[in-house]
Amino acid sequence: MITKASKLLHLAAVTAVIAATTLVSAAPAQADTCPAGSWCLWTERGFTGYRYQAAPSPTFGDRNPLPEPINEDTFSVINNTAKAIRIYRGADFSGSHTCIQPGGSIGDLTLFSVGQFGSSVKWGGPNTCG
Known about the structure:
Radius of gyration: 20 Å
Number of strands: 7
Largest sheet: 4 strands, antiparallel
């Protein structure tokens, strides 16, 4: 005989599984907005607005200056490369900078030293920001 308490317990367990599945499947969607092997910048917070995408090669990964409309209008970033990137506030890799490790992302750059004023990007070595 199934009691009311066991039905409620079963319902709670099913609800928890559905909620966990929804959270797990929702998290990777952000990373899908920037293809593997690339780093991407957006003109709006939360990975929205105009997207600038760069796919570094062994000989070319730096961008100086960033092209319009992204130059000094960098609000969010995803780094889906195997190397760290540094976003600099000034041209020629000068001024304050913010580092994004491989596989990392920042949904609101205004909370970091570079702010939304990214002007150049340097593609570094694996796990290095310096």
